[in-house]
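[SOLVED] Need 3D model of a two-part complex

Original post:
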Amino acid sequence: MREVSTVSYMSAVDIKARKKALKKIERAFSKLVKDILSGKTPTLVIRKRTLANTVFDAERGLLRIGNATLKRSFLNAGEAKKFMQTVLIASIIHEALKNDEYPTIRDLYYRGKHTIRFRDLATGRVREENTWDEQKESDSVIRDLEVLIDMLREEMLILSKEKGKVVGDMRIKSGDDIIDLSKMGHGAYSIEPTPDFIEFKDVNAEFVLVIEKDAVFQQLHRAGFWKKYKALLITSAGQPDRATRRFVRRLSDELGLPIYILTDADPYGWYIYSVFKVGSITLSYESERLATPSARFLGVSMIDIFGSDKLKKKPYLTEAERKNYIIKATDTDIKRAKELKSYEWFRTKRWLEEINIFLKKKAKLEIEALTSKGLRFLMDTYIPEKIETGDWIA
Amino acid sequence: MREVSTVSYMSAVDIKARKKALKKIERAFSKLVKDILSGKTPTLVIRKRTLANTVFDAERGLLRIGNATLKRSFLNAGEAKKFMQTVLIASIIHEALKNDEYPTIRDLYYRGKHTIRFRDLATGRVREENTWDEQKESDSVIRDLEVLIDMLREEMLILSKEKGKVVGDMRIKSGDDIIDLSKMGHGAYSIEPTPDFIEFKDVNAEFVLVIEKDAVFQQLHRAGFWKKYKALLITSAGQPDRATRRFVRRLSDELGLPIYILTDADPYGWYIYSVFKVGSITLSYESERLATPSARFLGVSMIDIFGSDKLKKKPYLTEAERKNYIIKATDTDIKRAKELKSYEWFRTKRWLEEINIFLKKKAKLEIEALTSKGLRFLMDTYIPEKIETGDWIA
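Solution:
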């Protein structure tokens, strides 16, 4: 094997990040060494990532991990395997950081996967045990490590596939390059998997429009939406990944830009909005950095489709358009809507109204149905009108 | 509704493309007008897009549409609906081109979807007929139109979601911007849905590496692979879309760069390679512009995993690594492998060997299994060694 260093090709940001992550891991695990040296049983104390330990922090408007903790002790038969897995993943990541590597979570699963042979002290027989069999086991341990050392995996230079894109009148520094997001032609800038390393240089935009669907993003970008309305245009291309969520959160926090989210009018779209806004339940420990509590649901809303006598709001669709465009909700849609209705952050007057219309009409609508009314309708009527009149759901 | 033109935000390339597409549609359909004026039954003659009319052109190394045609006549009861659909889609696209819009195929489905009421001359009753009920109907008619006027939908400014990304030492012009693909920081350039409009300005690269998996692309990009080995690095993020295929083809044709494709070692990966290389069966009429017959399958090959006594080739994996990394093939994998074996372009000595090893071992491997041996192994041993020694499958 040729021994060639990759260091010279690494960005200055990455070199700095490696040092920081190494230090954090070493500090967390030096406690174990101390335990051993002083004759104590080495034990890890980690906050629980269970549903019961997930709290909706109404004041801050996001999901948080609670304070309940679990212990993983080396000398407890029930905890020994998890203890071993946690130490194993930490040592693999530590090694990767030292070797200037960029593993993915799939890599880490493979790197750690092996069989341990040991003598069973009770029977005297040699037995075998796999470190793990499936990726969900190693993924779970990576999350434990994130909680334990209070550091997201991205900060440990663990990469992942990345779907989010952005265009707009803004300059950023990523790696060693300055990138002008207003000079992407018909293409777009694909956000890096580690958006915390991005430096915002300057921006000339009044709001951020996040679009669920890549194809609609392409249309609005191509027609010059972001130039005309001074927007940053982002697509999550479906369910948002961690990097897109963090990028949006930073735009909100650091630049103070209002964030509008545009999805299909269905429970799946609402869930996408919910993940951007309060975080996801299974990964509540990330929400403190990934959620954007100020995010607004711009549409498409049920009232946009059907209107509301109570709110004196006319629908954007005619009876004939509704007949052509509306899709019948599936059983899964309805089940999901009922689930969302039980979440605290959906129990506002306006959201309950929205969900109830859906459950009554059993109807959903795709954004494309609006584009089919003409791209100008979406671009020059629907979106700007709703933003100007504050016709969004918080 | 505000009447605001979007023209001023359109790129010069798009303005030119609109004119060209309008002219082509008008020319094709003026024949119908002539038919009517001269008392003939208006009839469209379109090449068939059936499996039977799909030919593997061994000399050129790609799938082609054959010469069999079908007729769609307005006054034939069995053809009238398809005739109407074809004219309808053409008129919607024509309208969109004139209005400076950028529809997607989903939009076009919605735009054309409506109910036609007519009097049944036989019974005298009023009946209703939908233009179409499902998107696959309108999609099929769009493909007919592409064949009829010999113009890909992208050239008619019909957009779509787009997954392909690229980085490397190359400058392109897209829209009105010059983009330096070597200055993307840790992110990447997301290819536009209409890659024929891209202008290649200058390039400093010796080959193109196309990677199936976005996460592996991120790793190699971040570690500086393309800088170190003078490569253009591309990911298709799974099954390649039309734009990524066209972009790769143009890099091959116009810049004469060798194209290497890196996928998982499984029939799904082989199929991705096959789509890049010869095209897809259902869309054979596109292959003349989307396929890259010179593309090479770099790996991961079955021989890389298991070695070959016949070829005197040692495997890249040790016995222990195989034990840890190999995944058992599913029934679907095996069915797909047998299917591929029947395709003419897979019936080469080397490919049959590859498929037979797979069918014998019933084993597959992910690229990530190689990355887990260390990113340097993939970057500094596996890929460059295979390219240098010509260890790829044509």
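Edit: Chain A touches chain B through 82 residues (CB under 8 Å).
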